[in-house]
Every structure is written in C-alpha cells, then in structure tokens.
Amino acid sequence: MHPRPPGTTEWRRLFAAEAGSPRPDLSLLCLLIGTEADPSLDAADIDAARRMLDRLAEQVAPDHRIGRSPDPLAWALALSELLGQGFGFKGRPGDYQRLDSSLLHQVLRRRRGLPILLSVVWMEVARRAGAPVHGVALPGHFVVGFGPPEERVLVDPFGGGRLLTGMDVELLVAAATGTPLAPSMLGTAEPLDIVARILNNIRAWAASRPERSDVSLWAVDLCLLLPSPSPRLHYERAQLLVQKGEYTAGARELDTYADEVAALDPATADRVRRQAQGARAMLN
C-alpha cells in the first residue's frame, strides 16, 4: 500500500492514477472515496480494510476454493453462508438514508450498506477466494453473478445473499423502472462503471440535502477524475461553487463547460458564458 498522502490533493492524485490504470483496483477506489467523507481516514485504515477482505476470503469453505469446485452455485452458496449468514452483511431500507452506506470502510465496519457497496464486498471477497464473480448493474438494484452467462447464478447481497430466480430479477427491474427486464441489463459491470455509479448515488443523496453541498462538490470532483467524464459535470461543479460564494472558480468552470459544448451547441455555450460573466460580476 502507498504511504499516507499528506492531504486531499494527494489522495485525489492516487484516485486518478488508479482510475486510469489498465486494471483499476475496485476496493482501493472505493476506499479512496471514503477519504473525502472522512478526513481522519489514513493509509493504515485503508490497509486494515483491505486486510479484512483478505481475511474474509480465507474463510470461504475450502471445498469452494479455486481448482476444487468451479460450480457457480457452489460458490454462491459458500459466499452466502459466509457473508450473509455468518457475518450478517445485508441491507435494510433505512440504509438508503445514510451516507456511510456508500462508503466501503463503513460498510465493512457496520456490515450494512447499499446494494452496490454490499456487492463490492461480495465481489472483492469472492475474487480473492478464486471465484468466477462479477457485478450486474440492474437498474435500481445492484447484484452479483457467479459463473459464465449460460450457467450464471445471481445473488442479492442486500438480501443477505438470497439466490435470485429469473422471476426475482424481473420483479426487481419492474419495481425500479416499471419496465420489463431487457438482456442488456444483465451485462457485466466493469470496475469504473461501479465507481461511477457509487459516486452518482452519493450525488443523489447530497442533492436532496442542500446543507450537504460539500458532499455534492467532492463527489463531482471525483467523477471528473474518472476517464472520459461528462462535460456536464463542469456545469454542475460551477453551480455548486457559485452557491458557496466562490464566484471566480465557478466562472472558470462555466467557461470550461462552454468550451466543451461550443462546437456541438453554440447557443448553450453562449448562454453559459453569459452565466460566467454574471458570476464574475458578483465580485463587484
């Protein structure tokens, strides 16, 4: 593990470097998100969280270790027995109201969290144990899959590791979207897609709590450090800065957004540049 960076700037450099690496480390990226919410979190805490994942993986039943049983159902049952039943990792409706439900170090401590964070725990433990595991980003409810598509077993970590039938998955999607399950919803979620979804969840949590604009701002900042971020994030960041009274910084972000969209949408670029002028005028 890296030595403790001296502050937020260095943590963010580490986050950007890991996000841009050929094989991003999902658990490290999730733990680095935690340094934004909890400034007391240091490298020793991050190491401890990663060692906990290692120790959990060592406790997966030996018969289900790599090379002994490649059966997806056996892996799913072994992880469900360990994490869901043994250690009590699962979710409750109230977890959606808590920021720490989106922070991996807190989820490991509390054994509670959002579906996607509990799924991260499952994936990271299962991967360390040698299981053929991946995330499945169902709309509104992230789950975990074991095995190849033709024999995949889906489980719901939020439900304590409940095995999901095809009907269960259809009901989860219908409850979240009101639409039928589409094959495209069952694709494998890549690490950076998972991190982006976690950050979007945090932004959604903060958006309903205007007093937590600080959380909105750092979540947007981290989104901008991911590869190929949406230009719209600059506009969102500008609004947050202006709300905080940081008019010059907000105006710069508005100019950046205008430059990014000018070629495709000149009218929007002109409107945003006028907003930048208005932000600067607030200093007079």
Give me the strand/helix succession. HHHHHHEEEEHEHHHHH
Structural class: mainly alpha
| Fraction in helix | 55-70%
Low-confidence stretches: 1-6
What's the end-to-end separation, in Å? 48 Å
The number of helical segments is 12
- What's the mean pLDDT score? 93
Q: What best-fitting shape do the alpha-carbon axes yield?
A: globular
Biggest sheet record: 5 strands, antiparallel
Query: Strands of the largest sheet, in order across it?
Result: 4-3-2-1-5
Number of strands: 5
Radius of gyration: 21 Å
The percentage of residues in β strands lies in: 5-15%
Verbal overview:
This protein has about 280 residues and is mainly alpha-helical. The protein has helices spanning about 10-20, 25-35, 45-60, 70-85, 105-110, 115-130, 165-175, 190-205, 215-225, 230-245, 245-260, 265-280, and strands at about 135, 145, 155, 160-165, 190. It has a five-stranded antiparallel beta sheet. The longest helix is centred in the last third of the chain and has 17 residues, at about 190-205. The chain is globular and about 70 Å long. The termini are far apart.
